Amino acid sequence: MARITLDNLAHSYKPQPTSEDDFALKELNHDWIDGEAYALLGSSGCGKSTLLNIISGLLHPSQGRILFDGKDVTHAPTAERNIAQVFQFPVVYDTMTVHDNLAFPLRNRGRDEAYVAEQVNEIARMIGVEHMLKRKARGLGADEKQKISLGRGMVRKDVNALLFDEPLTVIDPHMKWELRTQLKQLHHEFGHTMIYVTHDQTEALTFADKVVVMYDGRVVQIGTPEELFERPEHTFVGYFIGSPGMNVIPAQIEGNVAHVNGSQIALTRGYTDLSGKVEIGVRPEFARLSRDEGLPVNIRRVEDVGRHKIVRADFFGQELNIIAGEDDSISPDMTRVTFDPAHVNVYANDWRVPGAA
Length: 357
Known about the structure:
Belongs to the ABC transporter superfamily. It is a single chain. Helices cover about 25% and strands about 35% of the residues. By secondary structure, it is of the alpha+beta class. It folds into two domains: about 240 residues, Rossmann fold (3-Layer(aba) Sandwich), CATH 3.40.50.300; about 110 residues, CATH 2.40.50.140. Strands 6-7-8-3-9-10 form a six-stranded mixed sheet, sandwiched between helices. Helix 6 links the parallel strand 7 and strand 8. The two termini are about 40 Å apart. About 40% of the residues are buried.
């Protein structure tokens, strides 16, 4: 296991980048703490896989350094970094049995057969392939082959890091849940540093100790699932995390009051000298329908999703989402919405402004 340091790291696929927009991965400085599980979360093309491939050595950065426990490995080949990487699509040796596929990384490093057998059997049990250890990989389905890829990545206990690049894409939904649970179990048992790339917020939030949210080649927030939900540091985090995502509304801020289309919203903190694009952000969970106070809205529809109701409303042409309780009654005269002041965030040019007490 290793502490992974990204020092002034950036990458462009252009040979001579001239501006920040030319960089697929914008400048990044961060320490990945030894033994923690991270998820790299963001939409397609945001730079997740670029960053993962730089860490693994498949890609050399345009600038900056990568250090494992303080040792510069920026130009070291993948084999010297002692990492295991699992890719989006399964990579297996079709002519080998499932047992030999799982055993390959250990035999390649000269481990004795008794140890190899012990580790293979343990991992096979964890990923549910004990019954097929003697079968050739050639005849297996895509989900079974990906389980073997995952197992081969997990079979070594001495790796500096385990890297996963959207490894559950080809796995059926039920098996995804099982494999995520098994990855968490492996992390708790062996304490590997794990970095898991995904565009699925459920995968990220259930797998990781810390979630790294990326947008347009930039890391916009690193935090626990609770931090990402309660205090999105960028409007994209608020939009991308949650279902539905955060309501973002243009506003004018004066001290501890937000002015929105002629209505006033109380804030718990004070703000001065805000410039550029100013907005407030409120999660649907902290919005409530009202009969006589708050912002005027038109309810377009109510979606009952079982555990709660999602109210889709219109506010001067902008969609607002409100989450109501399963047993809450919603009447036609509830044409206003209020926000919990403690959960109203203020943004300037998409970045959260903490404000003053």
